[in-house]
# Entry
Amino acid sequence: MGKLCCFPKFRLARIMGWLQIVLGGLVIIVSISSLIRFYSAGFFSPYEDMCRKFSGMKDDYDDGFDIKALSDRVGEVLNRMESLQEKLELKVKQMERNKADLFRNNITRFEYKKYLEEEVIGPLYKAHIALRQIRLPKVEGIRNSTMKEEPLINTFVIEEIRKYITPKENKLGKINIYGSERIHNTIGHACVLFKKELEEYMDYDIGSYCKDDWNLAQRLMVNGCDPLPRRRCLTRASKLYQKPYPINESLWRLPDDRNVRWSNYQCRNFECLSSKNPKRGYSKCVGCFEMEKEKLKWVTNSSLPVDFLISDVLAIKPGEMRIGLDFGIGTGTFAARMREHNVTIVSTALNLGAPFNEMIALRGLIPLHMTLNQRLPFFDNTMDLIHTTGFMDGWIDLLLMDFILFDWDRVLRPGGLLWIDRFFCTRKDLDDYMYMFLQFRYKKHKWVVGPKSKDEVYLSAVLEKPPRAI
# Structure
């Protein structure tokens, strides 16, 4: 009988135990789900982020449009209008208090005109300009979308900054030498557009070798986002690197193939880069890697009047040309020839499908890895000569060209020479481009326009910068 009495109690205890376990599990599940919901709602975020979530405010749209800067610009315009309104109302009250003086003292028309210009028209004009400068994001369309192209433009008020950072479309919408439809100038907003690429470039293993991603860094440069310096990863070199040839050999000899990392090129050696190979991987400066052809440039007479000889240009300023810049695309042949005349030339270069930078350096010359949209890393009035060929041609936007030419003028010393070598454009655009070069009022030493094709022309010129003494 005792055993029979204990059995129901034991069974009830087991049921109660299992019920407690089930209820405890439910409590744990509910608690975890509640924590997840609180976390997703932002309760564990910093105070500012939490407030932003619950108030519905966002500093930026997902595509980078700066809504805060837009709000600041609108607020600035409203403040100007409010200030003008208060000033006019105060003036009206003063006139109301002095009615007797108004009848006795009549102001002249000149005073009335001056008052309108300074106190009314001026502030209204400034508010009007500020209002017109505001860029709203356009939802429809991609090509002209402000949200996509100029995410931070409302941050700036100065018109020159806004013109500089606005992307420059190519002439006729064609693809330029960079492989792009537009040029983004180098300022922080471009990195917002190419956030994914910049993050990929800066994602590397600290304490190891850097990834072989120079082409990613160059793509960032071309698109106006200068790649950031990286720390604690070591740059890779060719596994079989050989010492360069002596300077008396290297100027006019193809370098050793083992001194170049070929992994990001279509070709795997210098012989493959021949102009006869249609799959060489680059389209500009055809024949640049063929030394026998390069030896003829700027030293042998040509049938084209637009081709100038180095000896003729140096004779314009005998003994004065010592240092200069070759702004174009090539393998450093112009610098090699000028070296023979004891002139040091820095050559700009981009590796657009071929190892142009490595080639210039292995010849014993100085490559400067930079793009059109970067400020020249030289101080004012320092260069004796600037030479340009094969890079900045009729595809370029006139506003972008204006920024470039004025930067060249900045670094060119008084009496220095600007050598425009075989600049080409369409005939209908020739007057516009000629004005771009003539606006500086340089002295003309040479100026030749010749036909390139039925619809295109060449322009070659040697111009001297005036003293501009102040």
